[in-house]
Amino acid sequence: MKKIVFFSFLILIPVLFSCKSGNGKYRRISVDTYMDKVKAGWIGQMVGVGTGGPTEFNWKGEIIPEAKIPDWDPVMVNQFNQDDIYVEMTFLRTLEKYGFDVSIRQAGIDFANSQYALWHANKAGRDNLRSGIAPPASGHPAYNSHADDIDYQIEADYAGLISPGMPNIAIQLGEIFGRLMNYGDGLYDGQFVSGMYAEAFFEDDMEKIVKAGLKCIPEGSQYHECISDVLKWYRENPDDWEKTWILVNEKYQLNPQYRKFSCSEPGDPYNIDAKINGAYIVIGMLYGKGDIEKTIIISTRCGQDSDCNPANSGGILFTTIGFENLPDEYISALDYNTKFSYTDYSVSKLIDVCAKLVRDAVLRSGGKIETGKDGKEYFLIPVKEPVTGALEQCWDAVPVSSDIFFTDEEMAQIRFRSIPPEAHINVWKVSETYSREGLNGLQLFDITFPPEKDLRNGEWKDMPFGGEYSKWIAELGKMPGGENCVIYLKTNIWSEIERDAEVYLGSDDGIKVWLNGHLVHQNNVQRGFTPGEDSFPVKLKKGWNTCLMKVTQGTGGWEVALAICD
Question: How far is residue 334's CA from residue 79's CA, in Å, rounded to a whole number?
């Protein structure tokens, strides 16, 4: 990468001046400049995650060697399959549909209906939503053991990008979307990040941007303490980021008092806690000193979640710079038309929806949209101090109210259900794999192989299952057969009476299900594994019921899980 430094006089002159208008003080930014910067902010996330992706969680509790950082190639900007980017677009879509007055319960319904794979606080929160636990209880530590994890920090960029100079809008968006999966420091991390983005439209001094983000979260929180420490240690060691990294590691990695609600044990080098990863974002921003390459590489080399962290620091830095000022190596290969996974948004459409939402945000904040003497539109944004929520801590959480469940009407809007692991069938016989030369998984879906003709056909073995956290998932990828093939699983289901039942299953890739010799479900798709993604009714007879599944495989992962419930 080329080392590019952008100085403040290049950025601020065309963007910002304060003015008096009516009863208060305003910040003024042209709509054209906003569009230029919001576009850059999204690209910065893509560049950051593209750089750090190959290193994610490969270095835990240690600095990544510089030689292990991949060289930048312009095509690496096109990160359309990264959950670190597309998950937050679910929140944007909810805002696009319902506006800023959307209820947290509707936001929860939309998130419950998302179809991508998730982990940690996101997964626990969505599982809660799908099982009927409504937000904010879905992110409360009483129901979510990952509530202090990094998740909303990863996804909060959208909130700042549609709230230029409006930190209170960014904070409030966290109260809606961040509470779907997080609480305490796990919520503050996203409000901090989005507050930094909000300031980055008007400021390019990284220390000032970090301080603006800190104003968006309660001072008594450990997250606030951590970022304040990084600022202090930066001032003490302005040219030695590794010294600051060591100090962060000693206090926030090795000291159990700062891992009170970590989902990993205090002695575990793996740490997805919000605080330490937030520190790595800020280390990159401060020590990068406005240099794109340095900022992203330092955040990456800090380790742990080393693609999410440079995505945040890169997005904030790129917002200060603006698209028109970006070096060609970051935009020359940008694909404007490909959609991000699981969304209807391309880069072009993403910018369009931000342009729509920001207008609503400006007016909601008491701002104005005016036409200048030059014929261009300008946002006049009132200057307001951030108003933080009350201090809360996951290890000493305020109990949730008794009304924690979705209503029947709300549950009817949720297409997927979260089924507990113990409800899944984990005793199957598995066949050999079958294939046809030149045919892929989709093409093999309707070809009849021996087990479909007679369950006694073929060779059958006991199906091995996953480890401690996946004992209910049939990990077909461990079976011989490779790619572009199919496999069959069979079992018997006992019912004491004749009854109606509901089947919930997830598969990677396509799936056919027979019950007592009758085809009851089929879905010829290429997809990742999401538990309970398909559901359908069946009728069980009294006694034993035979169940046969056919699962297709293209390339990549290969898994299936099936639960049957009353």
Answer: 10
